[in-house]
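Entry 14: structure prediction run for DNA mismatch repair protein MutL. Input pasted below.
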Amino acid sequence: DELISQIAAGEVVERPASVVRELVDNALDAGATQIQVKLMAGGVRAIVIEDDGLGIPVDELPLALKRHATSKIRSLDDLESVATMGFRGEALAAISSVAEMALLSRCEGAAHAHRLDARSGELAPAARSRGTSIEVRELFFSTPARRKFLKTDATELAHCMEAVRRHALARPDVGFTVWHEGKLVEQWRIASSEQRLSDVLGAEFLAVSRAVFSERGPLRVYGRAGLPEAARSRADMQYVYVNGRFVRDKLIAHGIRSAYEDVLHGHRQPSYVLFIEIAPDRVDVNVHPTKIEVRFRDGREIHQQVRYAVQDALALSRS
Ligand code: ADP
Ligand code: MG
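Run finished. Output tokens:
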């Protein structure tokens, strides 16, 4: 069982940034409005994520660490959203099998918080306001071979920041604060979508991009597409979300790329942040443990609509 969970963990937890992604995901699922990410040594030494969400009832704390234990499937109706959101109850179990972990949580109305140490199973009273803190320390401490594959702290930190950025772009209604080695490195306050884009990607991005909006039946594409002059040599400013989840999808990327085919040449990469809203039964997000890939039922239509939406946005600037 230990081995099985370590193998499963290998698929979910690749580096500190994967932990950050999963824990922030959980905080958002719990309805957090403020999320703090505290890192030590690029997240390798410690990742502590604190939220002001609903909290975990004390009797459910041990359950949260079990494989396939999720509080997010309550009814048969929910199975639909399970298929689309990829809720699988794997993350905490996986992380706790490759790192030291503690859960600290307090629900509304509880007299105090409780802290559960994952390794010893010890449950003790603790202090904190409503919400949850998850502490992850010494990632891959028991698998030195995996730990050896980690890059420098600076590189791991950059990956962690990118994981937070991906969430932050999609959730301007949530405040994010990131600390590294006890120093504040980033703070994004609750803001409008446009302000959040500017805070996260820089005010220049707003100036050199155009609004995208297209709606056809249950399919909606919106966001911002960078003008040709905003193109970069690396594909590092390309954000696509499907129903609020960050994805990397070849079909969508190709749709966007083809909108730029007459204006971008060589290896220059367009910059964009696109949100695609689609009926949940038209998309399958549960195809990969990292939940980063999707499969569409009507790929051609989506490709075309994405392409036209971006083309229209870019044409605005030529008039
Ligand atoms: P999943 O998110 O797929 O349900 P996880 O392993 O990520 O699985 O989390 C297991 C369970 O732990 C969740 O279903 C939820 O009940 C609880 N949980 C984890 N993190 C939090 C959090 N920050 N706030 C409230 N509950 C949480
Ligand atoms: Mg989760």
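Notes: The chain has two domains: 2-188, 202-318. Will compare against the previous run tomorrow.
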